[in-house]
Every structure is written in structure tokens, then in C-alpha cells.
Amino acid sequence: MKKNIALAVLAEHQDFADAEPLVDVTGMSSPRVCALLNALVRRMDADECYLEVGTWQGLTLLSAALGNFGRTCIGCDKFRLWGRYTGWGLTARRALGRNIGRYSGRTADILFYAMSSQRLFAERRISSPVGVYFYDGDHSYQGTHDNLVAAAPFLSERSVVLVDDWNDPVIRAGAVDGLCDAGLRVLWKRELPGDHSRAAWWNGLAVFFVEKGPSAARLDRRPWPLAC
Question: Least crowded by CB within 10 Å, which of 15, 25, 83, 200?
């Protein structure tokens, strides 16, 4: 990926202010988030893939994949048994399978791994460079940090990284430190506000256009905006 496709699609679609749901799937996101993911997948380079950690029943994964034929979208979720919103993992896993089946033939190629992201990265299940990485997994500082660091080797030389639930200061801190420790240089970023409504970016979303490289500058640990 040479160009900042996130900047381009947000400008072209006026921040997706009039977005409508793309798929009929229960989930914890908004039409604006889903529409942004779909547009990013469409604009990826041909040899790149989309990676999503934390899928639950597939709302964002299927939205990203819808209509994007010839692309590959990879999802990963360990389906934990307990959790305030995403517990009862077996039920969610079955719902995801049904939802993927319902949209069969209408989406990009979907590869789903029912496992921890740690195992996904350790077993090197990703064979194509990741052009768009959407992180919505373990909502802790360490989980956010570690999943950005672990994903970095699989990213394209330049890629779009999105971190969900940006309203949470713990996730913000984990993301900032994770990008820094991964050696990813932030070339551009947007903080999109959310209030859990359909009209906003759900619980907040951060979008980064990043570049890999050993000389990546350290990110300032102060509150947003960040210095690169």
C-alpha cells in the first residue's frame, strides 16, 4: 500500500455520515464503522488481506467482506466463555458460522480461525501482507499492546491500522505503546468519536496509517494528539 486509503475514503464519503447497515447481523458497532471497513477492503492492494481480531457474531467482518470479491478477509476470535458482552462463546461461534453461511457468495473470501490471536500469530497463519488491520479483541492494556506488536511483522510496508473502543483510556494507552514498541511509524491518524449510537463511531475508533521500519520514531506518551 503506497497511498493513505483511509484519508481518501473518509474524505470521499464525508466521514460516512449517512451510512446505512450493510449486513443483517447482531453486533456492537455502527454503520459508519462498517462502511469504513468495507471501503478500506475495496481499496487495498490486490495482494493484501484484511485482518480482524475479535469478531463476535461477524457484524464487522461480514461488513468488511460484503461485495469485495477477489479479496481475502481473515477473522480470529477465541470465543471466551465469560465476558460482559461477548461471553457464552459457543453461542457466538455458532451464530458467526450461520451468518457467514447466510452471506456465502456475496463476500470476499473469508478465512476464520477460532483460536487466540496469540496462536494465530505464533503459527503464522497469515500468508499475505495485511493491508488493513482492525483490532477489537482483548480490551485490556496488555492485550491491545501485544496484539499490535504481534501483528506488525505481518503488515504491509504501509498499512491502515484501526483500534476500536477508543473511548477507553486503557485501550488508548495500550495502542500508543503497542505502535511504538512494534516499530511502526505513524504517518497519519484520525480519532473518530463515538457514543454507542448509529450516527457515531460506536465506542470511538482510531485510524492510523503506519509504516514499518527500524527507525520508527517513538510516540509521545501524552494524551492525544500524538507526536510522531
Answer: 83
